[in-house]
Amino acid sequence: MALLQISEPGMSAAPHQHRLAVGIDLGTTNSLVATVRSGSTACLPDSEGRTLLPSVVHYSASGVDAVGHKAQARQNADPANTIVSVKRFMGRGLKDIGDLATPYRFVEEPGMLKLHTAAGIKSPVEVSADILRTLKDRAEASLGGELVGAVITVPAYFDDAQRQATKDAAKLAGLNVLRLLNEPTAAAIAYGLDNGAEGTYVIYDLGGGTFDVSVLELTRGVFEVKATSGDSQLGGDDFDHRIHCWVLEQAGLSQLNAHDTRLLLTRAREAKEALTDHDVTHIAATLSDGQAIDVEFTVAQFQQLTAHLVQKTLTPVKKALRDAKITAADVNGVVLVGGATRMPHVRQAVETLFGQTPLTNLDPDKVVALGAAMQADVLAGNKGEDDWLLLDVIPLSLGLETMGDLVEKVIPRNSTIPTARAQEFTTFKDGQTAMAIHVLQGEREMVRDCRSLARFELRGIPPMVAGAARIRVTFQVDADGLLSVSAREMSSGIEASIAVKPSYGLGDDEIGRMLIDSMKHANDDMTQRKLAEARVDALSLLQATQNALALDGDLVDAEERAVIDAVLANLQQKMAADDADAIRITAEKLNEVTATFAARRMDAAVKRGLAGHKIGDL
Amino acid sequence: MTFDFAQNHFELFQLPILFALDNKQLDAQYRALQAEWHPDRFASGSDAERRLSLQASTQVNEAWQTLRSPVARARYLLALQGVDTQEETNTAMPMDFLMNQMIWREHIAEGKASQNVERLEELNSELREEMGALESELAQQLDVAQDFAAAALSVRKLRFMEKLDQEIGDAIESVLF
């Protein structure tokens, strides 16, 4: 029946031809590119031997002036045009980023903010693309050829808008995205394969701007994510920010200009790093007005200032354990990822919670890029039969707005991807021909507490009485964790079907274009499904009619019976063929010719029900 | 490459069409099917291959989620028999069951009000025990007696209890986090 048969002419790579693929860790503070070469995985260095590329872009009037170390060197002199930690702005609006001290001039845009630079207004997607392009050039120069594709890592806790923004940035940089891979999952691959680990592992990933925690089950070549949680606005930057505020307080300063803010944030980061190996450090700076700052800063002060931030990471850890239905005692190992896990009090807090020393034998800065490179190698088709399987989950529930500003969850968090779920809705007014659909992501009950992913209107519903139309909304989450939504009216012969890729700040014309695109694609795979559904629906109608005729055949006269039998035979014939529309039309016809019969059966049933009862009994 | 979307979930996992289920076998089959159909296997494939693998892998996940949850599995078995569990429409529950529900709700509310996580955890394991007992009944009703009306009632009861389970989980989270 609905057997999908697709045979493809040889699409696979020629044997022994190694396809160049890379893994890219697009970090808040630093980014890296890694690849698998002759069986070993390594991060690719720049011409000066450095593997870390600071995620910093400096813009001048002529465009991109510098990316990485050179750009970082410019940040004190030209803070407003030197974009750091752009990852925090991906897929985010102004209200999302709060009171983070930054020297930038933002432009409020629907969906995602933009930044004023000397090179004009830049979106975070464009800035990220400039970083990715630098890494792509580095990889191609180093590997001596064009890349077939890249795996780009994202925080596991990134929502749909943030993922979509990252994928767009990669496309803009000219990269073929093989997969968006969750950072903790990438770390688990690198760690698990390196150590032959089996059992339950927790990946605690505190990066520059994001915190992720994932619980994984590792069994013979299968990496299965059981639960993930995190905070996409919490990272090493917040520790710098705390120090920065403390210095302001100590020096009796209030608002600083962009230059001084950047200078003090840089000194704060240096102090934080110094306290990893020392008990005390000095924070010294000369502000633009000539005022000199020189304060002593101790480990004890630092830990006291930031204890609440460390605590804040433990809540998602506990949530993930609960969602995975395990306790801290069930965990075989805790892997630390991200530069911020170098802070001794972070390590201590993790150790206390799990009652075991965390695993730190892989470089926390590189482990994500290495895992992404391994996955890229597999996805590019360079591995044989014995490669591993990765089963990841969606971090946040997806839902729809319903009456009373409430969110109805359609796909719960921690569902294994890819996944799809359909929900049926109906009209609430007679003759209603359109319906608004609002897609949300988050765990809260109220619409205002969740992230709005998309709003669209389903038009062209055939006018019917209230409650008669059946609108099926289908959510599909692909292996990148990206959502597409389609909706269609089920009860009528006419099908209205659209698919929308929810995204940030889409203009009307963009949505229009997407709708047309998605209609084209949707038609291909819907033909098979439509046929299967038409057959199932027709079969139940056929059986219902035959049953009714067997029971109450005396309610139709010979002439009516002949008409019904003819349509029944016709429907059976149509069901054997492959035309879904023909099946539906014939099923409709059967409905029509049996309408009188159905009404008589109803009357008869009512009469039977009343027989033997007096009016007073009812 | 072919994937038969018309197979029912049990056929897909090569399992007997029964409520009683070998979880190990289910998980082993699940991994074998994902190893074959997961989109990672077709990342460098043609558009058609990638689309088919997305649909097939989605179907495998859907089937796995349905089969590994006792309530969903029972509901699915009943649907295969053409029996609607009427979870939205049939609200006529036995009186003693409804009384019991009210008592559960009171206990949860008390545990939440007093922020007593231990008590809530205790309630949770009590509830899980009751659900386990009802699941054993379901196995009897579905696999042995084939009393589908009784099984449908058990599913409706379990649906109520799942909601309680969810409420306890939410209460614990609201106290803890």
From TrEMBL, chain A:
Keywords tagged on the record: ATP-binding, Chaperone, Nucleotide-binding
Signal peptide, first to last residue: none
Lineage: Bacteria, Pseudomonadati, Pseudomonadota, Betaproteobacteria, Neisseriales
An MF annotation (GO) of this entry: ATP-dependent protein folding chaperone
PROSITE patterns assigned to the protein according to its UniProt record, in alphabetical order: HSP70_1, HSP70_2, HSP70_3
InterPro entries, per database record: ATPase_NBD (IPR043129), Heat_shock_70_CS (IPR018181), HscA_NBD (IPR042039), HSP70_C_sf (IPR029048), HSP70_peptide-bd_sf (IPR029047), Hsp_70_fam (IPR013126), ISC_FeS_clus_asmbl_HscA (IPR010236)
Function as written in the Swiss-Prot or TrEMBL entry: Chaperone involved in the maturation of iron-sulfur cluster-containing proteins. Has a low intrinsic ATPase activity which is markedly stimulated by HscB.
Protein name: Chaperone protein HscA homolog
GO terms (BP aspect): iron-sulfur cluster assembly
Pfam families: HSP70
Similarity section: Belongs to the heat shock protein 70 family.
Automatic annotation (TrEMBL), chain B:
Gene3D superfamilies hit by this protein: DnaJ domain, HscB, C-terminal domain
One Pfam assignment: HSCB_C
Coiled coil residues, start to end: 110-144
A single cellular component GO annotation: iron-sulfur cluster transfer complex
InterPro entries in UniProt: DnaJ_domain (IPR001623), HscB (IPR004640), HscB_C_sf (IPR036386), HscB_oligo_C (IPR009073), J_dom_sf (IPR036869)
One GO process term, biological-process aspect: [2Fe-2S] cluster assembly
GO function term, MF aspect, one: protein-folding chaperone binding
Signal peptide, first to last residue: none
Subunit structure of this chain's protein: Interacts with HscA and stimulates its ATPase activity.
NCBIfam families assigned: hscB (TIGR00714), PRK03578.1 (NF002935)
Name by which UniProt lists this protein: Co-chaperone protein HscB homolog
Organism of provenance: Amantichitinum ursilacus
Biological classification of the source: Bacteria, Pseudomonadati, Pseudomonadota, Betaproteobacteria, Neisseriales
